[in-house]
Amino acid sequence: MKQKHLRELMASCRPDILCEDHSSQPSYSGCSLEAKLDKETPGPSDSRLSPQSPGRKGKKAWSAEEEGTAPEAADVWVVETLCGLKMKLKRRRVSSVLPEHHEVFRRLLEDPVIKKFLAWDKNLKVSDKYLLAMVIAYFSRAGLFSWQYQRIHFFLALYLASDMEEDNQAPKQAIFSFLFGKNRSKRPLFHKLRFQFVRSMGWKTRVSQEECEEIQAFHPELWVWARDRAFIPKTTEA
Q1: Which of 30, 93, 103, 162 could form a cystine bridge with 171, CB 3.0-4.6 A?
Q2: Is 226 helix (H, G, I), strand (E, B) or coil?
Q3: What are phi and psi of 172, to 5 degrees?
Q4: Is the pTM of this model over 0.70?
Q5: Is the backbone of residue 166 left (phi > 0), alpha (psi -120 to 50) or beta?
Q6: Around 35, how many Cα atoms within 13 Å sit in the side-chain half-sphere?
Q7: Helices in 13-128 by DSSP H: which ranges?
Q8: How far apart (Å, rounded) are the C-alpha atoms in residues 123 and 126?
Q9: Per-residue pLDDT of the chain (238 residues; tens, 9 = 90+)
C-alpha cells in the first residue's frame, strides 16, 4: 500500500523532480499509511523570512500525549577532571546520529534534483545549515536502512524542519512550489507521507542547536555548512 502511494506521489511531480531510478535498490518500506491529514494554511503572498537568530528553539511540538511515547536519548556522565581522590563529572548527551546517517545525507546531496533545489534556494529561506542539520537528525530517528533513504525523504525531512523552526508558511510553500509547481492535488499525499515519517521517528521532532552543531562538526568541511543566513546581504532577500 505504501509503495503504491509513494509511486503515485513521484509520478505526479514535475518531470525529473521526485522520480528516480530504483532499479538497483530494494523497494521503500516504513510505516502504515493510516494517517490524519493536516490542513495547509497558505501564508501571505508577501511574507518574508527573517534570518535565524543564533539562539534557536523550535516553535512547534507534537502533542504531549504523542511525545510521551517517544524514547528519549539517555545522557551519560563522563569524567571531566581527576585530581587525587576528587573527581569532577560532566553530563553529556548521547546522540543517535551515526556515521551512516551522515553518509546517507552526503549521498543525497549528489542527487541532481536536490542540487538544483539547493541552488534554487539562493536566500536560504528553506535550506540553511541548521535546517539541513535537522535533516540528518531526522534520518537518525526514522529507523530506516541506509539504502531506503531516497530523494523524497530529504524533502519530507526538510519540510518537517521548516515546520518546526519557522514562523510563517513561506518556506514550506517554497518546497511545494519546487516539487509540484501549481499542482495542489498531491499535497495531501505528501502530508500523509510526512505523517508516516514523523511516526517512524517516534514523534521526536525537536532538535536542539547543540545537536545541530554536533552534526555539522562531524564533517565541518562539507560545503552545505557554509549556508548561513547571517552572511546573506539583506538587500538580496525577497
Answers
A1: 162
A2: helix
A3: -70, -40
A4: no
A5: beta
A6: 22
A7: 64-67, 99-109, 112-120
A8: 8
A9: 545 555 555 544 554 555 555 444 433 333 332 333 333 333 333 333 333 444 454 555 443 334 333 344 555 555 566 666 666 665 555 567 899 999 999 999 999 999 999 999 999 999 999 999 999 999 999 989 999 999 999 999 999 999 999 888 888 999 999 999 988 898 999 999 999 999 999 999 999 999 999 999 999 999 999 999 988 877 544 4
